[in-house]
UniProtKB/TrEMBL annotation, chains A, B:
Cellular compartments per GO CC: cytoplasm
Family designation: Belongs to the Fur family.
Chief location: cytoplasm
Protein known as: Transcriptional repressor
InterPro entries tied to this protein: FUR, Fur_C, WH-like_DNA-bd_sf, WH_DNA-bd_sf
Organism annotation: Streptomyces phaeoluteigriseus
CDD domains named in the record: Fur_like
Length: 147, 147
DNA sequence: CACAGACTTGGATCCATTCCATTTCTTGAA
DNA sequence: TTCAAGAAATGGAATGGATCCAAGTCTGTG
């Protein structure tokens, strides 16, 4: 089974080996419907759906879902962590210096300097900050992950 | 006066309208010699030079120097803020997921997808995170900066 | 059904950062 | 050189996001 079309939230959870609980389903839905929500906002959204959830449970679930690859965590310098449901595609973010609003942008692959977003969504961009994540030479030659 | 060649640290401070104090000179030198240092490391470096400085003074001075454009603050998600002396040029960073080491990279302007750094310095990059800073449509049409 | 895993409650704790009131110091002018 | 204005530095307290802990309850899942 598992119609290839569009798996339900529950099926997605199961698909990555996580238990399906009301809280997690509500959390996943909340994050996907929301727009780069912070932890508090997510907790509020989940409470709207299932009545109650503790902040700790929210943190726990966010970790689990992020680790499972169902959510992505972004942390614009200067503001608390935010989460989004868009994963898998390589997209970046526009952050407003004034109000902190976050918007998605596709990666400008293939053309232009990386300073230019493929679509600036109406933002007036004054800086592009790029962080390349990976392993430094020393760490990539080390067998295990030492932290 | 002010030989165009290479202004002293003190002259640079004066040049941006800041007072010249031993602490600031030492701090600026420390950051420039160091490699993406954190606040604690900077404080330690300054203490090596001038004997003593409070953490608060370090924060205050870092703010002042950053605002003045003499330093740049970078904040890789998951680690405390770091400061560097390279300003003015548009360069980005390589961050090691394992040890947190930060290295500079020039912007890959003009060629390649932004996923590819101009020189990866030996890092094995698995992700490029781009944050475009600017003002969202709403904020850019607003006369004053409301936060 | 039984159990591992998830959730709750209620702490405590950690860390980076900021705020406060007070004192000290740099600086430019007298 | 002396002085006053105002910026900078100080110690101490406080804030806020995030994490962790332990004990007990609940609940998916095999």
């Amino acid at each position: 089974m598992t119609a290839p079309g569009k798996p339900s939230t529950a099926e997605e959870l199961r698909g990555v080996g996580l238990r399906v609980t009301a809280a997690r389903v509500a959390l996943l839905d909340t994050v996907r419907e929301g727009d780069h929500l912070g932890v508090e906002a997510i907790a509020a959204g989940v409470r709207d759906r299932v009545g109650h959830i503790s902040l700790q449970a929210v943190y726990e679930a966010l970790h689990a879902l992020t680790a499972a690859g169902l959510l992505r965590r972004i942390e614009p310098p200067g503001s608390p962590a935010r989460f989004e449901g868009r994963v898998g595609d390589n997209h970046h973010h526009l952050v407003c210096r004034s109000c902190g609003t976050v918007a998605d942008v596709d990666c400008a692959v293939g053309h232009a300097p990386c300073l230019t977003a493929s679509d600036n969504r109406g933002f007036s961009v004054d800086e592009a900050e790029v962080i390349y994540w990976g392993l430094c030479p020393a760490c990539s030659s080390t067998p295990d992950d030492r932290l």
